[in-house]
Design a protein that fits this description.
The complex is a heterodimer of chains A (284) and B (333). Chain A is an alpha/beta fold and 284 residues long. Chain A contains ten helices and seven strands. In chain A, helix 9 links the parallel strand 6 and strand 7. In chain A, helix 1 packs across helix 3 and helix 5 runs parallel beside helix 6. The model of chain A has no long low-confidence stretch (mean pLDDT 96). Chain B is an alpha/beta fold and 333 residues long. Chain B is 38% helix and 19% strand. In chain B, helix 2 links the parallel strand 2 and strand 3. Chain B starts with 18 loop residues before the first strand and ends with a helix. The chains are: A alpha/beta (284), B alpha/beta (333). The interface between A and B is medium-sized, with 33 and 28 residues.
């Protein structure tokens, strides 16, 4: 894998955000806030953290990334295209008939998405199943990452999986929660409060790291700490801003499940380009 | 007469026919599958003794995973394991799996086309004293409606063993329906078993049969009892052991029905959506004839002893016999 500087990664994340806007406006449906909020995490995973080969998605020794909250798949598709899994051009086909880029990801349609997801709460179980095999049965070095939403922490199955992973000390498993505090019907802490979320995972025998989900250095560091952790799975609570990078979308749950209209997309892209131009890598 | 090519147990019609629960055959089949293939793993949700997955656990503890009372997690854990090359069997009661975890099976196993096998024990009213909550009567319907899913319903413990072994060799999602109660062992090791191939267990001697009886699961025994009695009354039937409900063996069933032009289906499941429904759907399209369906008629089970319940729900040989007589009356001359 090529190595990137933090500034280069920030630039990539900015490009991924622009891709997301372009894909969504073209699709005419889909989710905006979540994908934009997780662009830094996915960029870090695909360009810096994970051991994988875009030209060989079935490589057996690869790290696995399960996207549990399948509805934020535009960020995954964009990151995959940017890192070389398929041509950028194909991003335009999101949600269209015949496309490999289904509205919610499907394993059999697109190599590299690892599993089919959408209905919330089942990703962590699948990731734990993989990690169990990797650790105890096949005794392999590959790791499993599972991106989750905070809303799906309301689902009982998430905690069944958390209990299983904690009991079995799956230190090859890293869960990353997009703690953006929005879900379809409102703010997560209003709909069904999760706090204290850190204490909940700790009580389930997990190592918990809280980070700024837009700080790429912190994301990479947290994943390295997870790798170095023995005897426990790690839960990274990534505090993010839903709609990050597009001011009129930021922190608004109304943008959870809708795409921008063409004129809104124009404004969004202008803002994102302006941010992109400021990424120089020179620290002030 | 019993079809000689089916090599049924010579004890079928004897009073002291050997009885073993089909779930025992599942447990034995798991061990055989585990010996043949190191990728076979077994998961269980706090029912290892009941589902007989403990046979596997004792033999291969390193490939047995206890998940606790968490059937939804179990289904998706298994999906994840399958996606990294394992052949997981998940074991529980059918009301919980594929009942409680139905959506997890749909998305993470069936749509995902993950190589997971679902063993659903304690299906049918013959579960007995535990009552309605534990008597799965909808599971065939839940499973056969899902694309990519195969559905097996073995008629006795020996067939359950063969079916379980075969399941490990079939690539893709599969459901095996199992029963709690000890039921007659009607087949032998020599009885043919091929996934997707229904077997004729009873046929008319010297002339064409009057009625086709398509049965699945331990009630195949009751169908044979009915056939035997009817033959003594001069009514000849062909009894098909339809162990593979999906994909349905259209060829074998149609060949029989084209001769008899009258059908009785027999299963310990709701008549809506079950094996009989699968047969009726196929016949409606290909060769519509009168059909009588033996099964549970849109109600839940209840506590009682198994034999008593099978009678109360109208699933035993006298009811099958009556159904044959009814369908004969409806038959076009």
């Amino acid at each position: 894998m090529k190595e990137y500087s933090i500034a280069q990664l920030e630039k990539k994340a900015n490009e991924i955000r622009q891709d997301i806007i372009k894909m969504l406006v073209k699709a005419g449906s889909g989710h905006s806030a979540g994908p934009l909020g997780m662009a830094d995490v996915f960029c870090a995973l695909y360009f810096a953290v994970m051991n994988h080969d875009p030209k060989n998605p079935g490589w057996e020794e690869r790290d696995r990334l399960i996207l549990s909250n399948g509805h934020i798949c535009p960020v995954r598709y964009a990151a995959m295209a940017r890192v070389g899994y398929f041509p950028l051009e194909e991003l335009k086909t999101l949600r269209k008939f015949g496309s490999r880029l289904q509205g919610h990801p499907e394993r059999k349609k697109l190599a590299g998405v690892e599993t089919t997801s959408g209905p919330l709460g089942s990703g962590l179980s699948q990731a734990a199943g993989m990690a169990y095999v990797g650790k105890y049965i096949d005794k392999k070095n590959w790791r499993v990452y599972c991106a989750m939403s905070d809303g799906e922490q309301e689902a009982g199955q998430t905690w069944e999986a958390a209990m299983f992973a904690g009991k079995n000390k799956l230190n090859n498993l890293t869960g990353i929660i997009d703690r953006n505090n929005i879900q379809i019907d409102g703010y997560v802490e209003d709909i069904m409060p999760l706090e204290p979320l850190r204490a909940k995972y700790e009580a389930f025998n997990w190592n918990v790291i809280e980070i700024d989900g837009h700080n790429i250095e912190e994301i990479i560091d947290a994943c390295s700490q997870a790798k170095a952790t023995q005897e426990k799975p790690t839960c990274i609570i990534a505090h993010t801003i839903p709609g990050k990078g597009v001011r009129f979308m930021e922190n608004k749950f109304e943008w959870h499940g809708k795409p921008p209209k063409p004129e809104e997309a124009e404004i969004a892209l202008r803002e994102l380009k302006a941010i992109g131009a400021k990424i120089t890598g020179i620290r002030k | 007469m019993a079809n000689p090519k089916a090599y049924l147990s010579p004890e079928v019609f004897s009073k002291d026919v050997k009885k073993t629960p089909t779930r025992n055959g599942y447990g034995e089949g798991l061990v055989i599958a585990g010996e043949k293939n190191p990728n076979v793993v077994v998961l269980c949700a706090d029912l290892s003794e009941s589902t007989r997955s403990e046979y596997f656990q004792k033999k291969f503890p390193e490939r047995f995973v206890e998940v606790g009372v968490a059937e939804q997690n179990m289904a998706s854990l298994a999906a994840g394991m399958a996606l990294v090359g394992k052949i997981p069997f998940i074991s529980s009661y059918a009301t919980f799996s594929p009942g409680r975890n139905n959506e997890q099976i749909r998305t993470t196993i069936a749509l995902n086309d993950a190589n997971v096998k679902i063993g659903g024990a304690h299906a049918g009213v013959s579960v007995g004293p535990d009552g309605a909550t534990h008597q799965a009567l909808e599971d065939i319907a839940l499973m056969r409606v899902m694309p990519n899913m195969r559905v097996l319903y073995p008629c006795d413990a020996i067939e359950a063993k063969k079916a379980t072994k075969a399941a490990a060799e079939i690539e893709g999602p599969l459901y095996i329906r199992l029963a709690r109660e000890a039921t007659p062992v009607i087949t032998t090791e020599k009885t043919p078993f091929k996934f997707g191939k229904a077997e004729i267990f009873w046929s008319a001697s010297g002339r064409s049969a009057d009625v086709t009886i398509v049965a699945s699961g331990p009630l195949v025994y009751e169908a044979l009892l009915a056939a035997n009695k009817l033959q003594k009354q001069g009514i000849s039937t062909e009894v098909i052991n339809n162990h593979t409900i999906k994909p349905l063996d259209q060829k074998t069933i149609l060949a029989s029905v084209r001769k008899t032009r009258a059908v009785v289906t027999v299963e310990e499941h709701q008549v809506a959506g079950g094996m009989g429904s699968a047969v009726v759907e196929m016949l409606a399209k290909n060769f519509p004839v009168p059909v009588e369906m033996i099964g549970v008629q849109d109600r839940y089970g209840e506590s009682g002893n198994p034999e008593e319940l099978l009678d109360v729900f109208g699933l035993t040989s006298p009811f099958i016999k009556k159904a044959v007589l009814r369908v004969l009356k409806r038959k076009q001359p």
